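Entry:
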Amino acid sequence: MAELQLKVVKNTNDGIWGKALNNFNKVLYSSGGGLFNIVINSKRNSLLRAHQNYENIVKMAKENKRKAVADKYEKSYENYLDILERYIKETVYTRVQKKISTLKENRLLSNYYEVNALKGTDYCEYKYRIQILLLGMDWEYVLASKSENFVEKYKKFYVNVIDQLYRSTMRHYSIKLTNKKEPQDGIYKGMYDTVEAYIKEVLPYAEQSDECKKIIESYKSYVEKIDMYVKKEINSVKRELYLIELGMNIFEYSLPILAAEECYLDIIEKTRLGIINTYIVADKFELYTILVDAIESYCYNILARKTIWDKPMEKEEFDKFWDKFMEYKKLERIDFHEYKRLREVLFIKADIRKIKATNKNYKELLAYYRERMKQQGGLRKFKSTMGHMDGVWRTRRRCQAS
């Protein structure tokens, strides 16, 4: 097939036959047309029939029949993915080489090479991401070209499989976080990208529960409020904090607390360094407010739900800290400004204690914290030792020598 295509797309623009051949090439390799679509349609229909039988596997009494149905579904799924990958490697690749491809096809081929590069370094991640890429490509084609009845039929299969793939990918990233020898930055980025892709690619087609609608509306509101003129570092920290909060709700079992805690600690550390390395007053203060919000979210989503502590003393200290915060929380509706002041003082004092317990050089950050605590009345006030005594005091004049 590949050799035939390379012969057909031989570059020629001369004469009547050359123009006719180029027009034929455009039809053969146009999106939604070509020989591959016939085969893809056949494999897709076969897969949907196998998936429908696979859903009823629980009702089957005989074990050998259940095994046969499961094997047929797996085989159909493998053949379906294989023909989709061949379509990218042969048709899309040839169109890109001939420079008759669309921007979407260029992006698709670029993403395919990016995912394919993982095969030699992280096969598990490659296995999940290549399936997400191929299914997403065909899902877009089904939405654009098929009838509503067929879309509904295919959606049932697509949402079920793609949801499992995203959860498996998140579980894989969570496991990789425990390996401190690997570079962690790429893992954090992969986790945040997975959460965002799940919200955009899966949730709109999943069952529209109240929680699902709430997440979608929240994400739309977040995207609308992004300030493109703010520094990239500030938007990046905001995005990570927002996505990890959503991720803990979406991937409840695939994103354990230990992995989420590593994400929160990384965000807090990035924000601290951002405050140190930022010299514009407004940007520094914005990062400072993000840090306070990150500490609060960390306490709510991680420490308050934590059941296993390394040291009992840490648990006791946090309980005292949490009780004090709950007292302040009662002021939120009565006196919001006082609540915000007490909340900031409580969180920053706790962060100062954590920073001093480390060996890192945070002199500039601590100086900024002290300045904020002066403004918010968070510094400890020492009792004056000066007193007043009753009585008359006289001063003795010195005699000057004549």
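Residues 144 and 363 are 58 Å apart (CA to CA).
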